[in-house]
Design brief:
two-stranded antiparallel ribbon, mainly alpha
């Protein structure tokens, strides 16, 4: 009797588990990914863009945690999450929705990117309420408030760019190009004046500093993000990536969040973990592959 090595089977199971966690399908090709093969243009960005290089790379796994940590610091954004989000009851559902928006905006055609942004906007139509600002006054909020839209976009851009600079490869055109390109996604979400360079990104983040307010809800969210209810096999890897997100955060944000830089080499451990994930998933991602197939089809039909 021939006994095969268990390693390929184990690798397949791990790969399916990771893909299911982020896309909802064990092969990484849910309906919304397969739909990327359709469409009428290359999309907002296209091959060779800074956004494809950053948003399609594995450091986004850490960037997502880093962005969520930063977003909690704005009391309006935190109020919306606390009052309306089901992140505690269904953290994977919220994660997969965010992943779907990011990848569709990045790799889908222009119509798909617009539709995905509109879908997110509709989900936020009912998100409103009030919170206490840094001076103790009650402030009404809505998920469509220009200030909150701007803060979420800034936190996302800073986190994805920062994580890629820490652990990713070269960015075509550099950091400025990524910020400039990703501003298009911000405008689709209703951001009025998104930054278009790394310097503008830093300036706009500094402008928000007086409005950031860590409170009990922020600390509760940080505790949840530190130890979410994941399946046992994913917990160790997540803890490494959470530590990497904390270590890579600017020190001012860490202090406001009540976090300390890990004493152990979290940056190095995260780099090793990301390389392992990249080897497990392979390149290109199913989303990028679907986008390239669409672009090739359009090119062939234009000849």
């Amino acid at each position: 009797m021939q006994i095969g090595s268990p390693k390929p089977a184990a690798r397949h199971r791990w790969r399916a588990a990771v893909l299911t966690m982020f896309s909802g399908a064990p092969d990484g090709q849910p309906d919304w990914v397969q739909a990327m093969e359709d469409g009428e243009d290359a999309g907002l960005f296209g091959p060779g863009s800074a956004v494809w290089a950053v948003n399609g790379a594995t450091p986004t796994l850490v960037a997502g945690i880093r962005a969520l940590l930063m977003q909690t610091l704005h009391p309006g954004a935190m109020a919306g999450v606390h009052d309306w989000s089901r992140y505690r009851e269904d953290p994977m559902g919220r994660l997969s929705g965010t992943v779907r928006w990011v990848l569709t905006t990045t790799f889908g055609d222009t119509a798909a990117a617009r539709a995905s942004s509109a879908w997110v906007g509709r989900l936020h139509d009912h998100v409103s309420g009030s919170y206490n600002d840094s001076g103790g006054a009650d402030v009404a909020y809505s998920a469509h408030d220009p200030e909150l839209l701007s803060w979420v976009h800034l936190a996302f851009t800073e986190a994805f760019l920062g994580a890629h600079l820490a652990w990713g490869g070269a960015i075509p055109g550099g950091a400025d190009r990524y910020v400039f390109e990703w501003a298009r996604a911000g405008r689709l979400m209703g951001v009025q004046s998104p930054p278009e360079s790394a310097a503008e990104l830093r300036e706009q983040l500094l402008e928000f500093a007086p409005r950031l307010k860590p409170d009990r809800r922020v600390l509760d969210a940080v505790r949840f993000l530190r130890n979410p209810p994941l399946v046992p096999g994913a917990r160790f890897g997540y803890r490494v990536f959470f530590a990497g997100a904390v270590a890579s955060l600017p020190a001012d944000y860490r202090r406001m969040l009540g976090l300390r830089r890990p004493w152990w080499p979290a940056m190095t451990a995260t780099r090793i973990g990301l390389r392992a994930i990249a080897a497990l998933l392979g390149r290109p991602s199913s989303s990028e592959e679907a986008a390239r197939m669409r672009i090739a089809r359009l090119g062939a039909s234009a000849r």
